[in-house]
Amino acid sequence: MARTSQRQAAAHPLAYLLAVVLTLVVVVLGAYTRLSDAGLGCPDWPGCYGHMTVPNNPQELAHAREAFAHRPLEAGKAWKEMVHRYAAGMLGLAVLGLTLSAWRRRTGRMLATATLALIGFQAALGMWTVTLLLKPVVVMGHLLGGLGVLSLLWLGYLNARSFVPQRRAEPRLLRRLALLGIAVLALQIALGGWTSANYAALACPTFPTCMGQWWPPMDLADGFVLWRGLGVNYEFGVLDSSARVAIHMMHRAWAVVTLLYLAGLSIATMRREAGALRVVAAAVLLLLLAQVTLGASNVWLHLPLSVAVAHNAVAALLLLALLTLTHTLYRAGAKRV
Prior knowledge:
mainly alpha
């Protein structure tokens, strides 16, 4: 594992770290755009009403009204969408630079190239988000792709650092449990994206029960249909109440699993390990508790934009913390072997 990390190490950890920060900004901007109902603020791609900026002079506005009569311009929403696209474009250039540097220096090529390929697929998902009218499976995929880019860049940064923690033990089980924890968290994030894409965040307006019931009537089959054909506008959702309740309740149910699993993993790590590993495990636990609090607050406060965006941001930070824990466990274990 140590040799693999050295082969994939980036030459400039600071460059990777700056790219991580930019990616986090793009992810948060994407959440802000989606949650403020600005996902179709520009009905075309990559421009906006036929321009590379939001139309603002009489000629551009006249063209927008004529060419996009079905979608009147809302400048506020359009600017939210375009700022997100500009930031995503900057990220693409940054990752391209990292990839070229990796190939020139003959180090970290695999990770950098995979990140660049994922950036390209993310651009396609961004286009399909608009052209397929906010189809939920595309919106959810776009969210997961953004977090995938964030994860790969963070792994690039971790590989670039030469720090190898000292450990008190060699529990292979912890490493395997940490890997499984990433899968558990990824599924929960996907369910959160599916909830948001289907406008089901307030399908259950009370917490911890749902309309006074722990397990209300719901339509699971209809709630998890991934493909409903083309030409459907999914803005503000198309599902009935029972299907949205099903989506919301599955997100809540898996949140309990995620909470118990990651809390157990964090506590076990803090009890068995020392130093950096204990600190990272504590960070995972704190972010986990913050995320659960934000999720409950979304319901209690009826989905205020600031809390909903923070819920997305903390999910990304929790993922980074869990990746750090897993990476550190494997690096330390490889050092001892």
